[in-house]
Amino acid sequence: MRIAPSLLFVPAYENLSDVLLAFGEEVPFSSFATDNDESVQFLSGLDPYPNKPRITFKNDGTFKITVFSDLHFGENPWDDWGPVQDANSLKLMRTVLPSERPDYVVINGDLITGENTFRENSTSLIDEIMGPINEAKIPFSSTQGNHDNQVNITHLEEIQRELRVAPMSYTRTAPKGVGGAGGEGNYWVPVYYSVHDKVPALILWFFDSRGGFSPGKNSQQVDDWVDESVARWLERETRIMNDAWGPAEARQALAFVHIPPHAIQAVQATLDPDTNPGLDADTLGGGSTQATVDSNDLGNDEVWWSALTKNVKNLRAIVSGHDHGNEWCAREPKADVIFCFDKHSGYGGYGDRSWGFGVRNFVFNSPKPEAPLETWIRLESGVTRAKVLLDSNFDV
Q1: How many CB atoms lie under 10 A from the CB of residue 4?
Q2: Domain edges within the chain
Q3: 132-163 core/surface letters (b: 16 or more CB in 10 A; e: else)
Q4: CATH topology of domain 49-390
Q5: How far is CA 244 from CA 19, 240, 252, 289, in A?
């Protein structure tokens, strides 16, 4: 991976409100001008990270992502068991990162088991999690999960702490009004093929599926789906991208969200161990996919799901954690999109030691959207399994 200073270009927008809605308080204005009737506004670069290094493919034309999921730090802090699990998880991270040498890292939700932590030290657990990534000096992003919204911790607090202690973090918050209660973590990261390119080759999307409980003494259950406001934001984002960068068909995308979309639930019954290799130990049901904790909420993630699958072109896969016993990839036939489970990485959280602990890797071998995308599970021991090529022929 090459990282270079952000190179900005200057597209024109007839409707600045679209840009403001898309970027919220993070609009990267380095210059601003209007024409005589003040009807045309200029934004200095469609770049949400004007002060961070640009993320690019390596010189050999590849880009590798390593995904950690469900670390579940902070369990049982009142005895020895919990801290031992955290130490084991840190050892796993420090084993995997120098071995895999990814260009980018994703932590895909449930960083902390918030219901077990104490209010006075919950955010300090983020410092521990960031330690191995800071040591490796690898750029990264995170999503938050249902256990990250609890009486003693919130998604917003985790994001704010991460940005304070991890200089390589590309995590950010959504504009005001986007994400719903407890769902601040919706954003995207551009990845360029070359440092001099004006248009990214790959967009990494990150969505906040919320869930869990609100903070404080009068804690209430938080909706367990990506809020419909994210759908409207996503539509605006993709429209602005297309206006600035040209047709989306020339770009690839990969999406991360902690709780799987509900549409994936029906796919499990169609799995074939040859086509869809990997652990399949968690039966999907109530609470295991979005909008299923309460049966009355069923279908509430469909607005976001529809917006994602219709507006994000060349979406190579949607990637989730949450269900620790699953690690397969499969195609959802109605939307014709591939879904992949992460690998349970943390020693905290439920599970069976026989499942193992590890990560999911993705390798883009070309910036071309039609090129196969490699993905596989890597265990802490170095053993690999469930390798598949994600392309137009996968699971059809």
Answers
A1: 13
A2: 49-390
A3: bbbebebbbbbbbbbbbbbbbbbbbbbbebbe
A4: Purple Acid Phosphatase; chain A, domain 2 (3.60.21)
A5: 11, 6, 16, 35
Going through 158-245 in order, the beta strands assigned E by DSSP cover 187-192, 202-207
| 7 phi/psi in degrees, rounded to 5 | -105, 120
| Rounded Cα gap, residues 125 and 153, in angstroms | 11
Give the residue carrying structure tokens 């919320």: 210
> Residue 305: what residue type?
W
Report pTM: 0.90
The set of residues, in sequence order, having a beta carbon less than 8 Å from that of 160 and lying 6+ positions away, is none
Q: Which pair of structure tokens corresponds to residue 214?
A: 């609100």
Cα(388)–Cα(377) distance, rounded to whole angstroms? Answer: 10
Q: Is the pLDDT of residue 24 over 60?
A: no
- pLDDT tens-digit readout, 365-379: 999 999 999 999 999
- Could you read off the pLDDT of 87-126 as tens digits, one per residue? 999 999 999 999 999 999 999 999 999 998 877 778 899 9
* Cα–Cα dist 348/215, whole Å: 22
Rounded Cα–Cα distance for residues 212 and 258 (Å): 12
Provide the pairing of β-strand 12-13 with 373-379. Answer: unpaired
Strand partners, 41: 13, 34
- 205 Cα distance to chain centroid: 6
CA 130 to chain centre: 16
Tokens representing residue 291 in the block: 């909008």
Q: Rounded CA gap, 230 and 234, in Å?
A: 6
121 contacts: CB under 8 Å, gap ≥ 6: 77
pLDDT for 6 equals 39
CA distance 174 to 188: 10
> pLDDT by residue (tens digit) across 195-212?
999 999 999 999 999 999
Q: Smallest Cα–Cα separation from 269: which of 251, 256, 285?
A: 285
Provide CB contacts within 8 A for 212, sequence distance 6+: 114, 145, 146, 147, 148, 149, 150, 182, 221, 222, 224
What the block records as the tokens of 120 is: 């006075």
How many whole angstroms separate alpha carbon 283 and alpha carbon 318?
19
| Secondary element (H or E) of residue 364 | strand 358-364
DSSP state of 259: S
Q: How confident is the model at residue 1 (pLDDT cuts 50, 70, 90)?
A: low
